[in-house]
Amino acid sequence: MEYDASGLQVLSRPECLELLSTVRIGRIVFTDRALPAVQPVTYLLDGQAIVIRTAQGSKLAAATRQAVVAFEADEFDADERTGWSVTAVGHARAVLEPGELARLAGLPLRAWAPGGRDHYITVTIEQVTGRRITAARASGSASLPR
To answer: Which residues of the chain fall below pLDDT 50?
Structure first.
C-alpha cells in the first residue's frame, strides 16, 4: 500500500471507482458567473462516467455544458475516525441523444429534491484521486512511512 506524506492511503483508479459506486450523494464543483460553485447532488456511477439527474434550466444544467468540473464523494465514520474521499475531474455534458436518455432514465438514479428532474448530465472521469484513513492510522498506532 502506498501512503502520502500525511499518512493517508493513496487509492488506485479502480479503488476510487469502486468507492464512487458505493454512495449516492456527492458534490459537483463548477463555475457559475466566473466564480467557483459547489452543489450536492445525487448521482450514479455508470462505467467511467458520473451521471447526475437535474432539472432542465437549472443553474447546474446551464453551468456544466461542456465544462471541466470536479466531483467529490466521501464517506466517514466519526466515531471510528475512518473514511475515504475521492475526487474526479472531467468534462460535463448534457445528454441530448434520445437513445442515451432512455438508457439513463432506466438506471436506478432517483433525485431527492422535489420537482421534475428529467435532465441528465454526465461527467466523463478523466482524472481521479482518492485517499483513505484507516483506524490504525487515525489512532496513530501505525508508524508513518518514511
So the answer is: 141-146
Query: Which domains, from first to last, does the chain contain?
Result: 9-138 (2.30.110.10)
- Determine the pLDDT at residue 135: 74
108: Cα separation from own chain's centroid: 16
Tell me, rounded to whole angstroms, the distance of Cα 55 from its chain centroid.
19
**What is the distance between the alpha carbons of residues 57 and 68, in angstroms, rounded to a whole number?**
19
Nearest to 11 by CA among 87, 78, 70, 71: 87
Q: Find, among 37, 35, 34, 72, the residue nearest to 58 by Cα.
A: 37
CB 129 within 8 A of CB 16: yes
Q: 5 in helix, strand or coil?
A: coil
Q: H helices then E strands: how many in the chain? A: 4, 7
This prediction has a pTM of 0.86
Cell of 41: 447532488
Q: What SS3 state is found at 72?
A: strand
